[in-house]
Amino acid sequence: MPDERRKGATGGDGSKSRQAGEERVSDTPDLFLARVLALGHYLLSERMGRYQARTFILTWLSYASYYLTRKPFAVVKTTLSERLGFSVGVLALIDTVYLTAYAAGQFLNGYLGDRLGPRRLLGIGMLGTAACAYLFGANSTALVLTVLWAANGLFQSSGWPGNVKAMTPWFGLTQRGTVMGVWGTCYQVGGIASTALAGFILVRWGWRTAFFTPATWVAILGAIILLFLVEHPRKVGLESPQENEENATKEVAGGASGGAAVGADGEKAGRPVPQERMPFLEALGLPGILNLGGAYFCLKLIRYTLLFWLPTYLEQALGYPKDTSAYLSTAFEAGGVIGAITIGYLSDRYVAGRRVLFAAPLVFCIGLAMGLYILVGRIGMLPNALAMGLVGFCLFGPDSLLSGAAAQDLGGQRGSGSAAGIINGMGSIGAILQGSMTAYVESHWGWQSLFFVLMGLAFLATGVLAPLVRREFVSLKAERSQG
Predict the structure, then answer these.
(1) Beta-bridge mates of residue 268
(2) CB-side neighbour CA atoms (13 Å) of 392
(3) Which residue from 16, 243, 341, 405 lies 20 to 30 Å from 396 (Cα-Cα)?
(4) Counting Cβ atoms within 10 Å, is residue 256 exposed (0-12), middle (13-18) or buried (19+)?
């Protein structure tokens, strides 16, 4: 990678501090720690850094909290069957209408995020999902609960495109993999916390309280987002790091050609006037977006199958108690926390802008890790947790890259919300199918066969990404021959 790209500006008030934060640290075992400490110093000492930290914290809490009004239903399914007499078919129907609404909402809210702005999209979305969760806990009729959970799916779908859009202008290309890798832990931590909290409340105060309590927190945070989220550095008199990086690249190109660099909007590089809106059809035609969406279809089908049914599998097939099944199932997301951070950092260091080169091999490894889980999952709790943690490590790394950093790279400031919405929307179609797929496979061939199907999906996703990997290698070869 050219040096100019590795020196992307961070957009602060003091150039020396910016250089310290971006300085390439020598290869030592303490490399990651050194970069984290440098980033921490920058975030505390620079005005831009403080706004970046504020945006990071608010959006991280926002998306993690979305899970608090999403996951309780997966935890209370057995209780709803016992208390309200709901069949497996009714529970699967509620899942399906939720996921259908969620998938449709991804495309819609990706579009709205680029037009309304992330602050309003997230604030309205969080208040809406809080209201749906509270009303769900207050009702007992299957039809009413189905309608409420469908509405919850629409509000929930505002979370990912809205938060990705909010993060995009605050961090540049050379920071994005690391930042989004760490930020991407929001949906692993959110999933772990929401599952554990719902299980804890369920066995002590009942299933209704498992919806009431998190709904209150999500509503409070939604109001905070509406009041305090800053959508773009320009709103507080700062320049976007991504604009600075683009300007630096244009200036180098302009200097090489003997003239001022001119952007796509006709403005000189020194005075960028970025267009904030990308038409949906233009976003849909971005090169590689359908491959990313197709691979994410497979990944999200795997992820949601495990998120929605792993506690049930552990309880029904392996005989663990309800609360133990809920706690043990969090090993999947715990492994994902480590994977998202590690892979995000490595993608920044070695393949920034070419993240598929890291994502594709890890997607292949999901299949291998699933095979290991098939072999050792029944031996005991520790082997089960370790093997499922490995599945999470291999899955959440590329999951975070494809739906987060890669979407931001592809869409840029104009279309990051739309790109994230398209990729995540295609993935959500896979999530819709998890209920019917799980029910069919389990009823015909048993629970164990389900994990062979998930293994096959991982290998299929690898094949979908293969053309992008080949294109990146051809591009790298061309760059090296020119250099």
Answers:
(1) 262
(2) 27
(3) 243
(4) exposed
Tokens representing residue 238 in the block:
């700062």
What is the tens place of the pLDDT at every residue in 270-328?
334 444 566 666 767 777 788 888 999 999 999 989 988 898 899 888 888 877 888 89
User: Angle at the Cα of 407 (from 401 to 410), degrees rounded to 5?
Assistant: 125
Residue 257 belongs to a domain? no
The answer to whether residue 254 sits within a structural domain is no
CATH code for the domain in which residue 440 is found: 1.20.1250.20
The count of residues in the chain is 483
Cβ contacts of 30 within 8 Å, gap of 6 or more: none
Domain span holding position 63: 45-238+284-482
Residue 251 lies in a domain: no
pLDDT at 177: 65
Give the Cα separation of 479 and 483 in Å (integer). 6
Residue 93 pLDDT: 86
With 0.90 as the threshold, say if the pTM is over it: no
Q: Which two three-digit tokens encode residue 33?
A: 């720690």
From residue 165, give the alpha-carbon distance in Å to each of 111, 113, 126, 236, 292: 11, 7, 16, 17, 18
**pLDDT of res. 460:** 96
The answer to the question of residue 213 being in a domain is yes
The mean pLDDT value of the chain amounts to: 79
Give pLDDT, residue 103.
82
Instruction: Give the bridge partners for 262, in sequence order.
Output: 268
Domain count, the chain: 1
Q: Assign 3-class secondary structure to the chain.
A: CCHHHHCCCCCCCCHHHHHHHHCCCCCCCCHHHHHHHHHHHHHHHCHHHHHHHHHHHHHHHHHHHHHHHCCHHHHCHHHHHHHHCCCHHHHHHHHHHHHHHHHHHHHHHHHHHHHCCHHHHHHHHHHHHHHHHHHHHCCCCHHHHHHHHHHHHHHHCCHHHHHHHHHHHHCCHHHHHHHHHHHCHHHHHHHHHHHHHHHHHHHHHCCCHHHHHHHHHHHHHHHHHHHHCCCCHHHHCCCCHHHHHHHHHHHHHHHHHCCCCECCCCCECCCCCCCCCCCHHHHHCCCCHHHHHHHHHHHHHHHHHHHHHHHHHHHHCCCCCHHHHHHHHCHHHHHHHHHHHHHHHHHHHHHCCCCHHHHHHHHHHHHHHHHHHHHHCCCCHHHHHHHHHHHHHHHHHHHHHHHHHHHHHHHHHHHHHHHHHHHHHHHHHHHHHHHHHHHHHHHHHCHHHHHHHHHHHHHHHHHHHHHHHHHHHHHHHHHHHHC
Q: What tokens does 392 get?
A: 């999470």
Q: At what angle do helices 142-156 and 88-115 cross, to 10 degrees?
A: 30
